[in-house]
Amino acid sequence: NNNNNSNNHNNEGVKTEGVITLAADPFGNGTGSYCPPHRCENWTSAAILVLDGVGAGQWRRVISNRNRTWVVDRAFNVPLQKDSLIQIAPLKGHFILAGNTWKTASTVQLYALCLHAVVTENHLHQTPLLSWGRNPHLWGYQPNWNVELTNNIFTSSAGLTTTTCDEKWNICNEGANVNGLFNGALNSAVVVRGNEMSDGEGITIKGTSSNVVVEHNSILRPSPSFTNSCVIVNETYTSMVILRGNDVVLPKLDNID
């Protein structure tokens, strides 16, 4: 990571309940930090996220921090170890987008670091929806975790996509095999359920999306790519994607004598 918004460091493990000790001071002696001290001293209410290693996929809110010692709101369910890769970033999450209408918008995006987010019962006309975990503008890896995309209506739209991106390499990718590219859980624990689509594209699961449930979605009069299934999964780097009860609805034909 290389800016003032987030820093990732290996962790020495949980020493006491709700306290973690980093392997190094992320802001000490000008190493591992890209912001002046007066902007880095207080990370209260930020998020500590476990990107990789033991305990990956967990996050906690920062109560206080001083040098290598960080107090979080509660202990991690899976205690962290020396190989646990930690990301520290401003917390963005716990929000609901419900009952809205978007028409001819470029996109509706859950754009990096959306935790416990719900998008439900919206109408998107000629407007796609993206859940996009990524390393935006080289600010550090910011995942989307625990996301629900449910019961939305898409008309003449480019559909719904879950994907990932690493701008360190200028790659919005299928998890390209580039040395140093992070292919961890940037878009994980996602539910896509009960969405109705017509006259456009369906659902695409790609990048390093993982632990995704896609169920009971349907598409009417789809674009050619989705005539056989309303869900396309790129299996190169996605993992643990469950598909269940998704339908392509064929239009009824008039009786022909």
Secondary-structure element string: EEHEEEEEEEEEEEEEEEEEEEEE
Structural class call reads mainly beta
Strands across the major sheet, in which order? Answer: 1-2-5-4-3-6
Spatial extent as radius of gyration: 20 Å
Number of helices: 1
- Give the % helix: under 10%
Principal-axis shape equals elongated
Mean pLDDT: 83
Strand count, sense and barrel status of the largest sheet are: 6 strands, antiparallel, barrel
Give the beta-strand count: 23
Characteristics of this structure?
257 residues; mainly beta; 6-stranded parallel sheet; elongated
Describe the structure.
By secondary structure, this protein is mainly beta. It has a 6-stranded antiparallel beta barrel. Strands 7-10-13-16-19-22 form a 6-stranded parallel beta sheet, with no helix packed on it. It has a 6-stranded parallel beta sheet with strand order 8-11-14-17-20-23, with no helix packed on it. The protein is elongated, with a radius of gyration of 20 Å. It starts with 6 loop residues before the first strand and ends in an 8-residue tail after the last strand. The N terminus is likely disordered.
